[in-house]
Backbone:
């Protein structure tokens, strides 16, 4: 299993993963690549940040045999006037039976946030 920082070339497998993961979840719907790309544009610096005050977004993807097994989307924002950074998990998910992949990306995201918070 490889843990990769998300780049736009991972959009197709990440979209496929998300749609598999949420297929039978109430109130979740299938997303198109364009929609996921828009949601993740803050992590690639392609356009303006769509998440308002969220800074330094990052997505980590766990890949095995070319298939996404897990991903986590995190960032942080400044809390009020004191300027403390607050870490935020926007999304975390992993394939059933791949808890290790989910745990690994979550731990790496925690390390990333602890350096910025």
Residues:
């Amino acid at each position: 299993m490889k843990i990769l920082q998300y780049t736009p070339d991972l959009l197709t497998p990440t979209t496929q993963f998300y749609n598999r993961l949420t297929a039978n979840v109430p109130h979740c719907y299938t997303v198109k690549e364009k929609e996921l790309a828009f949601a993740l544009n803050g992590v690639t610096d392609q356009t303006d940040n769509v998440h308002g005050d969220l800074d330094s977004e990052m997505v980590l993807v766990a890949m095995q045999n070319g298939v996404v097994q897990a991903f986590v989307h995190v960032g942080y924002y400044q809390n009020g006037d004191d300027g403390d950074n607050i870490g935020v998990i926007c999304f975390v998910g992993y394939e059933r039976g791949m808890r290790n992949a989910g745990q690994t990306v979550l731990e790496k995201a925690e390390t990333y946030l602890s350096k910025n918070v």
Notes: The longest helix spans residues 99-116. The chain has one domain: 2-116. The radius of gyration is 14 Å.
